[in-house]
Amino acid sequence: MTPEGKAALDKIRQTRGYTLPVHDYLAELDPEMLRRYGDLATYTLFGEAEGRPMDLKTRFLVLVGVTTAVKGDSEGVEWAAIRAIENGATWKEVYEAAFMAALPAGIPAFEASCHHFDRMKEGKGRVDLKVPDENVNT
User: pTM for this structure?
Assistant: First the structure.
C-alpha cells in the first residue's frame, strides 16, 4: 500500500473508529478517491451542526433507517446505532428509526437490524464502540 493510501485509511479510522473493506480496496485502487470519499463522508456525517437543519443524533438516526432500508451490512447498522446513542438517542429511538424502514423495505429488513441490535446489547456486535450505560436498556 502506498503512503497516501495508508494516510487516507488512518484519517478515516481516526474519525470513525474503524474502517470497512471498501476503504481498504479504495486505498489500494486509488488513494485520492479514498481521501475524497472519506472527506465527503466525514463532512456529511460529522460536519459542524451550526447552520445545518439536523443535529448529530438525528443524522445518525436517519442513517439507521437508511442502512436498514438498503439492507446494509451489520457494521453499518451497528455503527449508525451506536453513534446515534453516543449523541443522545435511546434504544427506543434507534428501533423506531429502523422500523421506519419496514414500510419501504419490508419487515425482514427491520428484523435483520433488530438481530444486529440484540447482538450489540449482548456485547457481541461487530463494531466495538462504547454505548453510554444510561442508554443501554432504554
Answer: 0.75
